[in-house]
Give the backbone structure.
Amino acid sequence: MSEPTEDPFESLRSAIAFSSADWSEARDLAWIYGIVLGWDPDPGEDEDGAMDVVAQRFSWDAANVARLRRLHAAFEQHAGMP
C-alpha cells in the first residue's frame, strides 16, 4: 500500500473525487467541486460535462461560470496539473 500524499492539492482532489457525496446538490459544495475538479469535461473526453446543468440549478450567470472556470484553472496551475 502506498503512503498517503503530502501534497495538499492532490489530497483535496482525491477526497472530493472519491467521496460518495453528490457535490451538485448544494450551491457551496458545487462551487468547491467546480474549483477543485471542474464541471467541464476533460480535454479529449466525448461527454458534455455538467457545467450547464449545475449553473442552471444554482442560477449562475455567465460571469459566475467564467469566474468558476478561472478559479479551476488557477487551482490546477497551483496544483501542477496539466
Observations:
- The CA atoms of residues 3 and 11 lie 12 Å apart.
- The first helix runs from residue 8 to 17.
- The helical segments are 8-17, 27-36, 51-57, 62-79.
- The chain has a mean pLDDT of 91.
